[in-house]
Each structure stands twice: as structure tokens, then as C-alpha cells.
């Protein structure tokens, strides 16, 4: 099926402006179709981008939460270590007093 049969026109009888208008119309139609196809794919790309962006934000919040919790655990461990050190020193002083009392008797 040739071009003349597709459009049912005889290109020999057309004048130059008519050919240009016909080609222009065809090109604009192709451009419209290509824009429609492109917008369809861009919607998918944008939707995927939004999903990935939401996942990254969620993971960022989780990382910040874990970092904050680990810092709090480290601070708690330091406080407990200091408290245990003080208790050990107190027990050592008490033991030294008891040993001094035993040896003095």
C-alpha cells in the first residue's frame, strides 16, 4: 500500500504549499504521538522516583533513630561503668577497713 493509496490523494496535482502543509500536519501528528508516549514513560519514571525517594527518606529516618539509640546506649554504658567503678572503690575501702580492724585485734 503506497502513500497515495493511504491518504487517497494524488501528489502530482498538489501545489507546493499544500505539500508543505500535509508534511507539517504529519510531523505535528508524529510529534503529538511521541509526546504522548514520552509522557507515559515519564509518569512511570516519576512514580518510581517518588517511591525511591520515600524509601530513602524512610531509611534515613531509621538510620538517624539507630544512631541516636546507639549514642544513648553508649552514654548509659559509660554511666554504669562509672557507677560500678565507684562501687568497687567503696567496697575496696570497706574491705581495707575490715582488714585493718581484723589485724589490729
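^ Assign residues to that structure.
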Amino acid at each position: 500500500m503506497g502513500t497515495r493509496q493511504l491518504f487517497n490523494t494524488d501528489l502530482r496535482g498538489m501545489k507546493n504549499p499544500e505539500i508543505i502543509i500535509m508534511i507539517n500536519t504529519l510531523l505535528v501528528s508524529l510529534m503529538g504521538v511521541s509526546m504522548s508516549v514520552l509522557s507515559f514513560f515519564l509518569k512511570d519514571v516519576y512514580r518510581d522516583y517518588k517511591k525511591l525517594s520515600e524509601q530513602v527518606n524512610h531509611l534515613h529516618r531509621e538510620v538517624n533513630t539507630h544512631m541516636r539509640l546507639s549514642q544513648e546506649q553508649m552514654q548509659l554504658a559509660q554511666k554504669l561503668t562509672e557507677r560500678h567503678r565507684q562501687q568497687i572503690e567503696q567496697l575496696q575501702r570497706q574491705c581495707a577497713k575490715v582488714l585493718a580492724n581484723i589485724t589490729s585485734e
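The two ends are 125 Å apart (CA to CA).
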